[in-house]
Amino acid sequence: MEKNKTLKRAFTMIELLVVIAIIGILSVMILVLISGTQGYARNSRIKSGMSQIRSAAELYKLNNDGIYTNLTNDYEISLLLEDINYQGGNVLSNFSVSWDGLYYCATTSLNSTSDLWCIDSRGYSGEGGCTNQICDNSIEGGWPCGDSFTDSRDGNLYSTVKIGNQCWIAENLKYLPLVFSPSNGSTDEARYYVHSYDGTDTDIAEATANYSTHGVLYNYPALSTACPLGWHVPTDYELKTLEIHLGMEQSEADNENWRGTNEGSRVAGGYSLWDGNILKDNVAFGLSGLNLLPSGGRALDGNFYSIGSGLGLWTSTLSGGDAWRRSLYSENSAIFRGITSKAYGYPVRCLID
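-> structure tokens emitted (353 positions)
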């Protein structure tokens, strides 16, 4: 009997030790869970702070002659940097601005992982480090041209295409902060038009079929803010680079008027939208993937023109008081190069920085 009592006490002691061990394990698990939850929350706050820095940097740029020089001295940004470091990040020592103030890149460690979080002036926000003011996984560092791109200003989704060493938005731009009647023209102030729409209501303009298919027509002053962050309106030289890649000789590319053979057909797209036959029935039609459409334009007399039969396309390069443009026409497979008044309204295609 005494032996059984001893065994019972022994089993009771073993059971007690097991319970204590289980409680210890559960306590550790709870602490780990709490620590992980706190780390996740801190990481979320770090990422949010980095996004706020990116927004604040654009406001800083607007108020400082279009450059990011001395960006980290800005009061709002300095507060955000301090908070990120307080959460366990380390961004203060990893903030780089280019010598000319045109680009910046910032990266920070996260609280509970070994990953880095990066933002840059091209609009990237995500994992990665910085190299020469570009996030490693940014558009130029790892984002594959050919994937879709979302304009953060209005949510419009665009397809992209790589042609040679250039990455293009393969659709007409649809950014429409305002809309004007075609009779309201200017060579000095930004104007935005939607083909065949005569009004000033952006909601109504964006509901039209022409906006959906052809996007917006911009005058030259509107080009400065037309493209999304990280993209720009191509220069005359950059369009020549495209044309030469597609087969045009350098001597032809430098000429004015109609140049080349079938390069116009190569950059065109939307077969059913084109009138006539010469451009769209060429065997090279659509091969580049740039998909230029017969979106027409807005003329100096305040009228819309040429939808279905052609288009003008802006470059950012000035020539005196005018600017260089390109044109396609349904009855010609080549590409026109010439200068035009800044008051015209043309579609815009954006090229990556």
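The mean pLDDT is 86.
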